[in-house]
Amino acid sequence: MPGVRVTELHSYLAARRELVQEALEKSLPPEESYPPAIHRAMRYSLFAGGKRLRPILVLAAGEAAGSLLAPLLPAACAVELIHTYSLIHDDLPAMDNDDYRRGRLTCHKVYGEAIAILAGDALLTQAFAVLSQVPDGIAPARVLQAVTELALAAGSQGLIGGQVVDMEAEERPVALETVNYIHSHKTGSLIRACLRLGGIMGGADAEQLALLARYGETLGMAFQIMDDILDIEGDFSTMGKAGGVDAARGKATYPACLGLEKARGAAGQLCNEAQDIASTLGAAAEPLRLIAGYVLNRQG
Description:
CATH topology: Farnesyl Diphosphate Synthase
CATH architecture: Orthogonal Bundle
CATH class: Mainly Alpha
Distance between the termini: 21 Å
Structural class: mainly alpha
Strand content: under 5%
Low-confidence stretches: none
């Protein structure tokens, strides 16, 4: 794999993260809006930190298609709102029962289960309110296409479907096919949607959109495999949550199915493929190529 130009990538990620943060601040009602309990909980989880990789992928995909950044920001915010909702619900006692997320107490530990559930519901709903805004110069039909794309990625045949199979597979022997389903749906579907949303809102042609989708599928799988590996090798200081949880719960993961080294090799191959796809998209997709290397080498 070609070496990652870390300084350039870090500068790019920092600049795009700042744009996303500013847009996210405007995407929710103020904390003091009535009833304040729900808005405090929503903001607590949304602004708990995080790299904002998913919204940055939306921006990078749109830029690869030749778009300006402004028309891409509603879609970028929408995917981060949905990602945050999914984390809140994933942490609940009925799901993974986690105490910490991004280095601090999970939403239900601070606000209680009922408010945490409602905060997740509210973030999911707000995502589509934000995405349905029509930026200047963008055809409403493209916004409609983006709304459909994100709804399918987040629903029962995407993220939620992956979560269901993930829970059903706990403490059971599973085939690699099942692990692939879980990873490609629970994590991969939203990452693929990020690339597709950026392309749709950025005016990508059919060929570009197909390449962006392939990149998203490949990167999404690599990202989750690395997440599996980090659960074994990482610690609280880098991950912001406890490690060793997957093994303790008997989760269906790549290391559990293939072993640690084969899992690492699979992630490397997928990141190589993602870099090749980004190179095919041309010079404007250089951030995407660098991000694939970053995913392989991330520490948390």
